[in-house]
Write a structure and sequence with these properties.
The protein is an alpha/beta fold. It contains 12 helices and 13 strands. The strands form 2 sheets. Strands 9-8-7-10-6-11-13-12 form an 8-stranded mixed beta sheet, sandwiched between helices. It starts with a helix and ends in a 5-residue tail after the last strand.
Length: 345
């Protein structure tokens, strides 16, 4: 049997491993990983997944459900290349070697500089390794984490709401509410899906937002994003951001690259930028926006309160092209999900 045919034979187990991976938390410095263990006849004898930082990795979680005799000669089907470094846990590659398994099948390589190399270590120990099984499916599941690890900064989503003529507010500054109730509920779901919500000091001073993720009934979502405030201006002590369930990360400067590095060092892997036009434009102009959520309401406002400001574009050839991945109608609003063209990923 050639390697291609052999890889295809492990696809059902890998699909199950992907299902298990999705059970893990998205809000962790580690990726979602699932594992299925097969005996010599191809029967599933154990399953496991990673539940969050400091907990057992998927392979070790699955191995804990096996006797030493069962582990010997088994095949571990895992969504991510087994790690090869000691962090909060010991290397999975070493544990697999010690257990005497016969084979490891994985979907995608570990992009971490310190944690990669597990496949090569396993091969050197005489264990058969098959990589690339359902790679695209797994990379889609953990795409945000993989980008964060590769770039050493959080995956950044920039969101704004505007009228169809691109205004974020009327001439008098009023903007509540341009988007409808269903759109606003979706935004709170998107906040809850992120590790952090990011605004500028201008938004805090002008709007005094709570920066929490809430249900339409006003209850807090189970997961709350860490509030991050970027800018040099001082925030009042009684600002609502200080009442957030999580301590705010206040970045006292306007260097976005440095701010993202600070977020990354604090365990933030996904950032939801929901500040005003100045901050949104700065992230896009700097090439730091990985995804855009653009809410458009069926109204015209005119005036100069644009949803985006200067992007540093002086001629058409300098434009930022967008790849639109979805367009969804939310009652009378439209939600466009798009990715700016990138050259550094």
């Amino acid at each position: 049997m050639d390697k291609t045919a052999e890889s295809q034979g492990y696809e059902p187990a890998m699909r199950r491993a992907i299902e298990l991976a999705a059970l893990g938390s998205r809000h962790t410095i580690n990726p979602q990983v699932g594992c299925v263990v097969l005996d010599a006849e191809g029967n599933t004898i154990a399953e496991g997944w990673h539940r969050g930082s400091g907990t057992a990795h998927a392979e070790i979680d699955a191995m804990s459900r096996l006797t030493p005799e069962q582990a010997q000669g088994s095949t571990f089907v895992v969504t991510l290349e087994p790690c090869n470094h000691t962090g909060r846990t010991s290397p999975c590659s070493l544990a697999l070697i010690t257990a005497g398994i016969a084979r490891v099948v994985f979907a995608t390589d570990d992009p971490g500089k310190q944690s990669s190399g597990g496949a090569e270590r396993l091969r050197e120990a005489g264990i058969e390794v098959i990589g690339g099984v359902l790679r695209d499916e797994v990379e889609e599941l953990i795409a945000e984490w993989m980008l964060a690890i590769r770039l050493g900064r959080p995956h950044v989503t920039v969101k704004w709401a505007s009228s169809l003529d691109g205004r974020a507010a009327a001439n008098d500054g009023s903007s509540q509410w341009i988007s409808g109730a269903r759109s606003r509920a979706r935004v709170h779901e998107q906040r809850a899906a992120a590790d952090a919500i990011v605004v500028g000091t201008g938004t805090v001073l002008a709007d005094n937002p709570a920066l929490t993720a809430r249900t339409p009934q006003g209850d807090l979502h189970n997961h709350q994003p860490i509030p991050v405030v970027i800018g040099k201006r001082k925030i009042p002590g009684d600002a609502l951001v200080h009442q957030h369930p999580l301590e705010a990360l206040v970045v006292g400067h306007n260097d976005l690259h440095a701010a993202l590095s600070e977020m990354y060092d604090n365990g933030i892997r996904t950032a939801f930028v929901e500040g005003g036009p100045t901050l949104a434009s700065a992230f896009i102009a700097a090439g730091l926006a990985d995804r855009l959520y653009i809410y458009q309401a069926p109204m015209l406002l005119g005036g100069d309160k644009m949803a985006l400001g200067d992007l540093g574009i002086s001629t058409l050839s300098e434009r930022i092209d967008l790849e639109i991945s979805s367009v969804e109608q939310l009652d009378s609003d439209i939600l466009i999900t798009a990715q700016p063209t990138r050259k550094d990923v």
